[in-house]
Recover the amino acids of this structure.
């Protein structure tokens, strides 16, 4: 004798994966917003102090300034790195990378003129 | 079997309600963050074009709850008008935050005011040309900073000055 799943139960069961997926996407988009704002805030400060980070060095964020997005969200962590852009010593390539989970990260980059304030 | 079916339905409904509650919580947080981002875009648009933070304008005086940015006046063809300034004033009082643009008589900018409620603890700072603001949206503190040191004589053709 076959036992068939009732349509209501089937509907309930099939709705749960979609619910979980929607929740993951909502949380992911919220964290992505926060990561972008955190990275942009860090770059805004460092672009006017291009010599604060040594080329080749990677500094843990928040670096040199307060960052409310990182301090209020322990799930986010970031690093700020600096390299010479295309080998030019007067142009610094800053990259702010904010991790928002095990497998996802947001990266913002900025090219700063090291000869003056940007 | 009916007992197990009932358990299953109750468990599924409870799990679903829990997930929906978490979804609502994150949705509200995202809405609050979007409100801040809207303010941030408004401030950033004027801060990027500003030359300095002014000490006073009309009845407004610079302080923790009031910020005044001086923007160069510009004509319709994006040419800056020397000696003329437009002012962007951000002021908070009694739980209402106001973001107003006061153009000069010569400027092509329009006067506009944006009122936002439930934006608390709006605080401004200006030091070393770094203009920063913090605001609290539903007890969550957000903040951003902008440097205003740029001097320019002509706006780019795509600049949203108006």
């Amino acid at each position: 004798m076959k036992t068939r799943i009732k349509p209501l139960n089937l509907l309930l069961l099939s709705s749960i994966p979609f619910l979980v997926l929607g929740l993951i996407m909502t949380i992911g988009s919220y964290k992505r917003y926060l990561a972008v704002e955190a990275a942009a805030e860090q770059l805004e400060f460092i672009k006017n102090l291009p010599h604060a980070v040594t080329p080749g060095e990677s500094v843990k964020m928040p670096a040199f300034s307060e960052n409310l997005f990182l301090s209020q969200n322990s799930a986010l962590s970031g690093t700020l790195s600096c390299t010479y852009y295309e080998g030019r010593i007067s142009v610094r390539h800053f990259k702010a990378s904010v991790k928002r989970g095990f497998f996802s990260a947001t990266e913002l980059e900025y090219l700063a003129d090291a000869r003056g304030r940007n | 079997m009916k007992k197990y079916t009932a358990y299953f339905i109750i468990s599924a409904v409870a799990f679903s309600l829990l997930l929906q509650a978490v979804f609502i919580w994150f949705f509200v947080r995202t809405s609050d963050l979007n409100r801040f981002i809207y303010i941030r875009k408004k401030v950033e648009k004027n801060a990027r074009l500003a030359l300095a933070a002014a000490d006073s304008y009309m009845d407004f005086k610079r302080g923790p709850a009031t910020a005044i940015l001086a923007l160069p006046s510009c004509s319709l063809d994006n040419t800056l008008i020397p000696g003329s300034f437009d002012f962007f004033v951000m002021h908070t009082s009694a739980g209402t935050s106001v973001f107003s643009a006061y153009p000069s008589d010569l400027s092509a900018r329009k006067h506009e005011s944006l009122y936002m409620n439930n934006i608390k603890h709006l605080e401004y700072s200006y030091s070393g040309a770094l203009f920063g603001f913090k605001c609290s949206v539903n007890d969550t503190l957000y903040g951003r900073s902008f440097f205003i040191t740029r001097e320019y004589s002509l706006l780019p053709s795509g600049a949203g000055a108006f």
Observations:
- The radius of gyration of chain B is 23 Å.
- Chain B is about 30% helix and 40% strand.
- The interface with chain A takes residues 1, 5, 8-9, 12-13, 15-16, 19-20, 22-23, 26-27, 29-30, 33-34, 37, 40, 129-130, 134, 140-147, 149 of chain B (CB under 8 Å).
- The mean pLDDT of chain B is 86.
